[in-house]
Design a protein that fits this description.
The chain is of the alpha/beta class. It is 26% helix and 32% strand. Strands 5, 6, 7, 14, 15, 16, 17, 18 and 19 form a nine-stranded mixed β-sheet that branches. It has a six-stranded mixed β-sheet with strand order 9-3-2-13-21-20. Strands 1-12-11-10 form a four-stranded mixed β-sheet, with no helix packed on it. Helix 1 packs parallel to helix 5. The structure holds flavin-adenine dinucleotide.
Length: 370
Amino acid sequence: MSAQADLIIIGAGFYGLRLALRYGAKGMKITVLDRLPEAMTKASYINQARVHNGYHYPRSYITAKASHDNYQRFMREYPECVDNNFTHLYAVARSGSQISEYQFQQFCEIVGSPLLPVRPDEAALFNQDRIAAVFRADEVAFDAAALRRTLLAEISAYSNIAIHYNTDVTALDQTGGAITVTTNNGDFTAPRVLNVSYSNLNDIIRRARFLEAEKELLNIDIEIAEVALCTAPPELQHIGITIMDGPFWATLPFPADRLRSLTHVRYTPHTSYSSRQVATPPEEILSAYHAETNFYHMRADAARYVPAVAEFQYARSLFTNKAILANHDHDDARPILLKCHSREPVFISVLGSKLDSIYALEEAMADYLD
Ligand SMILES: Cc1cc2nc3c(=O)[nH]c(=O)nc-3n(C[C@H](O)[C@H](O)[C@H](O)COP(=O)(O)OP(=O)(O)OC[C@H]3O[C@@H](n4cnc5c(N)ncnc54)[C@H](O)[C@@H]3O)c2cc1C
């Protein structure tokens, strides 16, 4: 006998929890399934923690503008989940950057993301031979642990939302007008199923035995990504830095672990592959991967731009699978991906490429579920 719901959500990441709240608030009986013992431990925890305000996407106006438009909304909804106790400096490299100082300023003005002049002591942190310009930006970091607490507290007010942890989805079958989801923890049936399993989206699609899975697979690349966590010397303790726009790096507070992250365009991705072509589940590939940290390469390169980075002390690294829509290297755009595999019963896969994309997604979902 399988447990019945109105909507099954596969994945208790930020996206799964937000969508559970949205449809739980409409009175639907929601079942959330996650293979792990806790919510928001994968991509929603292991990331750069940047609440995007548009600056980061100078090659995709649409992505930048959407982030900027969503920024204030996120800040209003989750004020207790952000760290704004630091100054975020965006710098433009003299060589190797895909954007000039002038172009970056123009772009930010068009998007509406404010750039302010830096103080002399902030400018002095940078190696002027390598950095053309530095600006103060209005962009904070989120605390994934606080976000998880907030979302779970909101969910606990709804008796119609149930989260089942340690519940690994192994198959999906159509049973009349509904879908039965088979797990190690029993079967669950609903007329609507949302697949928000991020890097496992294609793995779940492959398990949907009522679909011609090969035709439904999403064009997603998976990167094994390293977020290095470290501590900073006093002069950088309340500073975040992002160098634009090329094979550079960023360091931001990582509030959930009371540390800071160091990430690098060249060294954070360890390896990548197409999840359409490789059928092995990404989690298996990640567990088999013998990861050695790239922190020391990141630090050595970063210190050429900001010498005090040489004093960063390594704490540990978090490795996770990053899911990226294929064919966006040229513009770095981060559109949402929503694919409806079937409408009766409803089976939809969703890739949320940044936290703020949730707002666009919720609008798009209205056509299918509201
Ligand atoms: C390295 C990195 C840096 C990033 N930096 C930023 C940033 O600075 N700012 C930003 O806004 N975004 C950033 N992102 C993107 C952001 O983290 C994601 O868009 C977001 O977390 C996706 O949320 P999600 O709920 O879809 O995925 P997840 O949080 O990964 O949740 C998916 C869930 O599905 C579950 N699941 C998978 N398979 C199964 C199964 N078979 N059965 C049951 N459950 C299953 C997993 O256990 C997991 O809990 C970054 C991502 C990465 C990886």
